Amino acid sequence: MASAKRKKGQQAEIKRVPSYRARRITVLVVMVLACASLVWQSIDRQVIETAFLQEQGERRYLRVMSVSASRGMITDRNGEPLAISTPVKSVTANPRKLQGDAQTIGVLASTLNLDPDRLRRLLASDRGFVYLQRRINPDLADAVQKLDLEGIDLLPEFRRFYPSGEVVAHMAGFTNIDDQGQEGLELLYDEWLSGTAGAKRVIKDGKGRVVEQVENIQSPAQGRDLVTSLDRRLQFLAYRELKAAVNKHHARSGSAVILDTRSGEILAMVNSPSYNPNAPRGNRVSHLRNRAVTDVFEAGSTMKPFTVAAALENGHIKPDSPIDVRPGQMKVGRYLVRDHRNYGMIDVAAVLRKSSNVGASKIALSMEPETLWKVYSRFGFGETTGSSFPGESSGRLPYFSEWSPFEQATLSFGYGLSVTPLQLARAYAVLANDGIRMPVSLLKLEHLPEGERVLRKRTARAVVKMLETVVSGEGSAPLAAIPGYRVAGKTGTAKKAVAGGYAEDKYLSLFVGMAPVSDPRLVMAVIIDEPGGEEYYGGLVAAPVFSKVMSGALRLMNIAPDKPWQENTLMARLGDKE
């Protein structure tokens, strides 16, 4: 009985064990659905949404980068570089990716030599791109790259470099941080020199570094080269001597211009003080302007040859006409015109050789005001030279109807009108070129342009012959002489205009000359502003600069001597100094 009961109990227990079949089915269904979901997701991503997902990926890693274009090179007439572009890199940042913790900012600021607070402000931007430092040197670029910071990138760019530095600064000018011309030829020919940036598609990694170049969208177009009329050898020579003279005489500034009389090309144009175009723009603003074309002054006695030319051209005098300048002064209206001393009865050549104000005044007053004004105008006074140089001044030539007799007299020796150094050089080039005025050119010319005759050949040659006597032992500019060459020119020593009249102790020292006289090729104007000390006459301050520069220029250009070489004994006699 007992055994039967135990057997019955065991059977009851077996019957009470639950069945797991439903669970197994449930698990199996879930696993099948999961697998089906994975398969579906794979199909969806790899087949259905492929294009969409690729686009999203490319948006995160595929970028279009701008490719900088090199600016065109500026060269002198012989192909020597005056301005070139060199590849450099700029440091950029993505503030959204860069970790702006104190340690990262400290390391980056130290490397870039930036103030940490300033760097922190730059990185506080919510933009995806900021410049940290533009156009750094290669050593610094390597140091930044070694930091390997996420969000920091090196962007390829170009930096302008000027091999001749301050020697060509006022002519070449400079560009800004975005490579746009700001002064000089860089500004004038900015469109010509500027290149067109290109574009390329690249893949970047999570740190923003380029890992692969996908395709070239547009190739960069480099800027066009510019061949100027300048001769770097003459530019250097003129700058060296001008700077030395400004320093020697403790002058405020100086300018010099050399023109090719046949073509009108500017072979050299310099100013002192100058500036270094390769340095940061911390220079004084007054040093940046090209004084040879922007600044105007009263030309003093360098205007006398044009007064003589006007009288000769219109038949009022002849080269040997006697001019009575006794007793060394003359009254014009309520004012007196004075010479340094009484020269007595002299001819027209002596008026220039002795630089007689009385003689020039008498010649000017022998003409109608309109006659004198027209000749001055034909020489280019009162208008720009047409060079188109940025900031060029037209000077000032008052209209003849405004002249009083005294103003007409003073205009004859350079007071009452204003000119630029370039205008003065061009006017003398007319005399050197047998009375033909050539357009001024900043670029090298392949063919001679057509000039305009403004003076008869015999008149121009007669004036040049008179000017040759100025550069002699009896003239005011013996220090302008060049051994082996015939030289013609004129000195000027003008008092500077100040409020209420003219300063008694501030002068402009000038000399404008040409060589060789037998066939004038070069004209040079030299202006020294406010020379200090006792030497302030143009014949003592400006003429020696002309002699040194022109002597070297004639030899550099292989222009044959036209005068037997003689020992320079002109130092023994300095004439009337002016």
What sort of overall outline do the alpha carbons produce when their principal axes are compared? elongated
Output mean pLDDT: 88
The level of helicity is: 25-40%
The quaternary structure here is single chain
Give the uncertain stretches in residue-range form: 567-575
What do these coordinates show?
The chain is of the alpha+beta class and 578 residues long. It has 2 domains: 64-94 and 129-227, Penicillin-binding protein 2a (Domain 2), CATH 3.90.1310; 232-572, DD-peptidase/beta-lactamase superfamily (Beta-lactamase, 3-Layer(aba) Sandwich). The protein has helices at 2-16, 21-48, 50-61, 102-112, 116-123, 138-147, 169-172, 184-188, 190-193, 232-248, 291-294, 304-313, 348-353, 357-365, 369-378, 405-412, 421-432, 457-470, 538-541, 543-556, and strands at residues 62-67, 74-75, 81-93, 130-136, 152-161, 198-204, 210-218, 226-227, 253-260, 266-272, 322-324, 329-332, 335-338, 345-347, 436-437, 452-453, 488-498, 501-515, 522-529. Strands 2, 3, 4, 5 and 8 form a 5-stranded mixed beta sheet that branches. The chain has a 5-stranded antiparallel beta sheet with strand order 10-9-19-18-17, sandwiched between helices. The longest helix is centred in the first third of the chain and has 28 residues, at 21-48. Mean pLDDT is 88; it is low at 567-575.
